[in-house]
User: Which sequence fits this backbone?
């Protein structure tokens, strides 16, 4: 008798397990019916093909892969998530897409890992039936995600993945509003040239972003006659003292002004920066210290790098933070972002801008296409092919000059495919401890300076203040 | 009544085994609309192979290794590196050739490590294998030119035409799933063959008391190395096949980190590390549970209450999904508690006692039948074996 | 590899200067002091309980978080020096308490002989605790890195050869970060206090007696079970203290303990399991080896990436060649 129970119990457990697996996602439509004809649909994307196919609530779902756990940049992922939520709220406040279809971002944590990126895209496309994807911070994950987008033909707008290859493979579904690494390397090299730097220590993370970025920066610097040395470190490294000593020693071999460029992203960069200052690599007249772009998050920066005064950091985007703050399209977002973090000084980081815009761009494309079909959305995005036909959003006017109608010419790099060409490089500098981003000075390029000066020698203050 | 009883005793394990196998076979068809869950299924099988082969080493042979994931990665990397450039040693390295090569590399390195570790007992072995695994991982991370560094190594994927056809009826990930299922069944067969041979007895004898086993004539060195090599090769096979599957095609060094290893160990221990099947079922079940627990579906009434307290939830590390509670780190906390409680009160794991219960009657019968014959045979073998001269110098 | 070594000789001779090597040595010794403190706890546990605690790094992690939380709560209401001391005490107390509770619940049955295959059980339970604590802190604290501010700033002065700024102390060409200087000093004080406790007080001697011979200790009236609990609690506390002093140097995340654990393993094996002088010397050696290795590794691109490998290679070699380490007892 007992064994009967055992058998029943096992079967029940198996049944529950199988049922549980099934219940995880929103129940997908099994068969798509179009005009009374049953179209055989293999397991795959289940995105609605027209507005009529939306559920009763008429909600349109858009997938947003972002890193929300280590080893990904959690701060970056959280910032992007907040920005996208604001975008969605703003659209829905006006009734939704085309004024009647509410939009819903579906977030998925990629940890910045390729295999999690694949899982994210599979889940979003086949389980959540998203019509398009917008987001991602890490190139490593983005590289894997673009493959899935391509496999299922679902449009994807990458917000903050810099690796050139994301667009260089020229998939029809893949768009990018982030700068490509090569664009940034060019700006960096020119900055060092203008500052009269003779030698640069490039401290980079050992990843799909850091390695190509450091190499192309080194190449660009060499073209301008500046020597450099690359130092690699793993993401998550804690102890940098010996590396700092080494850089400090190598630096003594060069005359004139030197620079340190930090290409380590996320929280690891704070560790390096603080230990660099403690180890004697503090910013000085002869040493320009370029911190990683996450320094733009002033509160975190000062908490983690309390001795980081006079550090320079890079800002890449449609305009400098000050230019963006003036944009009509950005004002609402900036306010909402500060409210969301409950911090009146938290100016949106550049990846927050990008995430907001990437999501908004999908919305605009759907509105232009008046359709939910992937081909139509892609065609709408491609129709934004010049500044005149572009879409004005928070960062600037978005357009993609090269695409299926206008292939990338031979004299342009392959990554210009579906690439927003506008991102420009700016350099900002803090000059007082605990400064907010909006109090920092833009020191480069010359025509954008906000304090009337280029590099602020440590110990001085801008004259016009 | 008695005949009924005997009937169940004999056939219940078979019935359950067949039902289990059938469940595994039809799973991709059942989930044909959700490739995601088939992908999770393939992952679960991957973990099941790792957990059961780890159980062979740790549970049966008492060699507590933390390097299992390292061997998995080693085989995958070896296979990927020879497969990347055509024409190494004038061979065309398709996955069909490079995977066995990778497994072989894992086996050879396993042999070396197993031999080096002969003097090391339990704790020392655990420490040594941690060091080995970390060195391997850090080297793979640092040698970017060879291994692709932390971004991972891109791998050729294999195509199995007879499985590709299934994607129409089952799921996109069906080829990957069925390949992993085949590897899973294959490795279980190999391990059970080993465990049920006379080596199985030697394994346990060495685990319980090495000196006594040696005194009885068990060739301790050979037994320990054999266990190490076989389990390393199976881990390597699982890793290489999994990462070469269509749908993966990349391996990153962080898959070899101690954190991943701890997951495998936890799965095996909760399932029951003294039983291969229990470890495998534990891993399958726990992997699905962990995926499912990412977002626990909630009834609407509860959901609106949760939504009202969203800020509090988020402050405590929870999150809210569309129709459920996102557990984030807390599912792993629950997993950790389960692990501790299992260790303290159910040393043999949670699945293993159930399996043993089912098998009990059969085992009783078999033991009775086989005892006499086996005992005679083993004694005969013992005479042929050389008694190993004290491998225990130094050590602890 | 050979090519980079050859490249090293003519091109990077500037690295082989007395000042640079001295600087690396000083840095290595400073961080080595903290390693010693961490390893002392692990070796204490091993010498009395006979097990290696795989959750050692997690006590280190918790020590850091306690300091962070304490400073968050009290840094504006108490004077700065007082909050620093209070935070350290709180960290020690919390880790000690967790250690004691865990030992009573999970390790006592083993010591009483109620568990089969105790070695395996010891590895698994401590390892399970590590798993649990890591994710518990991830749930409670979130994955964002936290960092406590320095316990105090250095006084700024310039005395020619010795200069100090808020962030660093310069002695000639040697620059030492303020955060780690303070951490090193506290670690040194704690090590001295611990040595005093172990060798000069009755309880300390009782611990040592238990580690040498449990039966004999029991005969002279020492309760070995209580000694087990005390040793585990103290060991956890030392790890917690190491974390507490380092939380102002490194950014803190729930998995910082993993590196700390593996460093402690390396050190106690190098020094000889269970040997107190061994763990002190081992810590300093590993600190110096890592510092010199990274500073002088021929290929600057890989130098930092190989940092953790130097110690691990020594570790593997010691295990294979001389498992008893530098000061190990014959076992």
Assistant:
């Amino acid at each position: 008798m007992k064994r009967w129970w055992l058998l029943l119990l096992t079967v029940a457990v198996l049944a529950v397990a199988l049922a549980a697996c099934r219940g995880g996602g929103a129940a997908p439509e099994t068969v798509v019916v179009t005009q009374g004809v049953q179209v055989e649909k293999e397991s795959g994307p289940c995105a609605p093909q027209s507005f009529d196919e939306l559920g009763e609530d008429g909600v349109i779902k858009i997938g947003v892969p972002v890193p929300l756990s280590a080893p990904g940049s959690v701060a970056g992922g959280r910032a992007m998530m907040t920005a996208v939520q604001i975008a969605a709220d703003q659209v829905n406040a006006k009734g939704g897409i085309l004024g009647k279809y509410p939009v819903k971002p579906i977030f998925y944590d990629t940890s910045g890992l390729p295999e999690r990126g694949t899982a994210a895209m599979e889940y979003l496309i086949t389980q959540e039936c998203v019509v398009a994807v917008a987001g991602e911070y890490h190139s490593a994950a983005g590289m894997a995600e673009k493959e899935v987008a391509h496999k299922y033909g679902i449009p994807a707008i990458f917000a903050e993945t810099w690796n050139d290859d994301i667009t260089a493979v020229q998939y029809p579904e893949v768009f990018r509003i982030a700068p490509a690494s090569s664009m940034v390397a060019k700006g960096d090299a020119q900055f060092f040239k203008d500052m009269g730097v003779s030698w640069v220590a490039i401290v980079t993370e050992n990843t799909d972003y850091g390695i190509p970025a450091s190499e192309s920066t080194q190449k660009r610097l060499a073209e301008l006659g500046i020597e450099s040395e690359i130092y690699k470190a793993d993401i998550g490294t804690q102890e940098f003292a010996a590396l700092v000593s080494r850089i400090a020693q190598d630096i003594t071999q060069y005359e004139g002004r030197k620079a340190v460029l930090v290409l380590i992203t996320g929280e690891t960069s704070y560790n390096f920066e603080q230990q660099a200052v403690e180890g004697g690599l503090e910013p000085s007249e002869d040493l320009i210290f370029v911190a990683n772009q996450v320094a733009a998050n002033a509160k975190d920066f000062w908490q983690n790098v309390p001795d980081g005064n006079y550090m320079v950091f890079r800002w890449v985007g449609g305009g400098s933070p000050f230019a963006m703050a003036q944009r009509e399209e950005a004002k609402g977002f900036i306010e909402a972002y500060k409210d969301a973090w409950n911090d009146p000084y938290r100016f949106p980081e550049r990846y927050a801008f990008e995430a907001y815009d990437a999501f908004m761009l999908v919305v605009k494309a759907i509105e232009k296409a008046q359709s939910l079909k992937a081909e139509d959305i892609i065609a709408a995005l491609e129709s934004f092919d010049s500044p005149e036909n572009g879409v004005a959003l928070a960062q600037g006017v978005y357009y993609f000059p090269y695409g299926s109608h206008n292939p990338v010419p031979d004299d342009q790099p392959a990554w210009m495919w579906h690439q927003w060409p506008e991102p420009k490089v700016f350099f900002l500098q803090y000059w007082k401890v605990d400064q907010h981003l909006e109090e920092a000075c833009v020191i480069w390029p010359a025509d954008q300076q906000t304090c009337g000066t280029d590099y602020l020698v440590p110990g001085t203050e801008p004259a016009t203040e | 009544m008695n005949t009924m009883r005997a009937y169940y005793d004999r056939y219940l394990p078979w019935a359950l085994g067949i039902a289990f196998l059938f469940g595994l076979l039809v799973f991709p068809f059942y989930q044909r609309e959700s490739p995601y869950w088939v992908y999770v299924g393939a992952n679960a099988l991957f973990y099941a192979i790792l957990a059961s082969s780890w159980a062979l080493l740790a549970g049966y042979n008492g060699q507590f290794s933390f390097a299992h994931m390292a061997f998995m990665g080693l085989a995958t990397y070896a296979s990927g590196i020879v497969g990347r450039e055509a024409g190494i040693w004038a061979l065309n390295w398709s996955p069909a050739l490079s995977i066995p090569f990778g497994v072989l590399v894992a086996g050879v390195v396993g042999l070396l490590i197993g031999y080096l570790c002969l003097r090391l007992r339990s704790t020392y072995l655990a420490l040594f294998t941690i060091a080995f695994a970390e060195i391997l991982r850090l080297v793979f991370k640092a040698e970017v030119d060879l291994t692709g560094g932390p971004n991972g190594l891109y791998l050729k994927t294999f195509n199995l035409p007879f499985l590709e056809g299934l994607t129409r009826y089952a799921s996109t990930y069906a080829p990957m799933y069925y390949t992993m299922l085949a590897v899973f069944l294959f490795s279980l067969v190999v391990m059970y063959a080993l465990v049920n041979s006379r080596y199985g007895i030697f394994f346990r004898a060495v685990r319980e008391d090495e000196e006594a086993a040696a005194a009885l004539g068990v060739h301790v060195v050979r037994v320990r190395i054999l266990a190490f090599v076989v389990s390393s090769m199976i881990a390597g096979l699982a890793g290489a096949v999994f990462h070469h599957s269509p749908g993966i095609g990349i391996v990153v060094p962080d898959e070899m980190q101690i954190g991943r290893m701890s997951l495998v160990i936890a799965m095996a221990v909760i399932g029951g590390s003294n039983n291969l099947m229990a470890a495998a079922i534990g891993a399958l079940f726990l992997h699905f549970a962990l995926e499912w627990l990412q977002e626990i579906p909630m009834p609407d009434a509860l959901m609106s209450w949760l939504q009202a307290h969203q800020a509090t939830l988020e402050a405590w590390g929870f999150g809210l999904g569309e129709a459920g509670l996102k557990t984030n780190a807390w599912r792993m906390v629950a997993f950790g508690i389960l692990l501790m409680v299992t260790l303290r009160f159910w040393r043999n794991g949670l699945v293993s006692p159930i399996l043993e219960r089912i098998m009990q009657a059969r085992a009783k019968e078999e033991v009775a039948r086989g005892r006499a014959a086996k005992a005679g045979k083993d004694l005969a073998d013992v005479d042929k074996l050389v008694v190993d001269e004290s491998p225990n110098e130094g050590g602890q | 590899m050979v090519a980079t070594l050859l490249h090293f000789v003519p091109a990077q001779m500037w690295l082989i200067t007395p000042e640079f090597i001295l600087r690396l040595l000083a840095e290595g010794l400073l961080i080595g002091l903290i390693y010693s403190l961490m390893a002392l706890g692990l070796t204490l546990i091993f010498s009395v309980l006979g097990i290696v605690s795989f959750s050692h790094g997690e006590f280190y992690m918790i020590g850091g978080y306690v300091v962070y939380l304490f400073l968050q709560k009290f840094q504006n209401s108490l004077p700065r020096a007082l909050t620093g001391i209070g935070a350290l005490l709180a960290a020690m107390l919390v880790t000690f308490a967790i250690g004691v509770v865990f030992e009573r619940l999970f390790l006592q049955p083993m010591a009483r002989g109620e568990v089969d295959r105790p070695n395996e059980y010891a590895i698994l339970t401590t390892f399970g605790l590590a798993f649990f604590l890591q994710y518990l802190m991830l749930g409670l604290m979130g994955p964002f890195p936290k960092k406590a501010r320095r316990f105090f700033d250095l006084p700024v002065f310039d005395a020619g050869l010795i200069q100090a700024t808020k962030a660093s102390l310069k002695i000639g060409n040697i620059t030492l970060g303020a955060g780690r200087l303070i951490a090193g000093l506290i670690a040194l004080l704690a090590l001295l206090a611990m040595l005093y406790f172990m060798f000069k007080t009755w309880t300390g001697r009782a611990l040592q007696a238990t580690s040498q011979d449990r039966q004999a200790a029991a005969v002279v009236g020492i309760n070995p079970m209580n000694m087990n609990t005390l040793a585990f609690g103290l060991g956890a506390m030392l790890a917690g203290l190491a974390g507490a002093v380092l939380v102002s140097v490194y950014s803190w995340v729930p998995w910082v303990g993993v590196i700390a654990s593996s460093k402690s393993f390396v050190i106690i094996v190098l020094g000889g399991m269970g040997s107190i002088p061994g763990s002190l010397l081992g810590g300093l050696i590993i600190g110096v080896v890592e510092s010199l290795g990274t500073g002088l590794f021929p290929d600057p691109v890989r130098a930092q990436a190989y940092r953790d490998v130097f110690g691990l290679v020594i570790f593997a070699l010691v295990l294979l060649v001389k498992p008893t380490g530098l000061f190990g007892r014959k076992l």
About this structure: The beta strands of chain C are 157-159, 162-164, 168-171, 174-177. The longest strand of chain C covers residues 168-171.
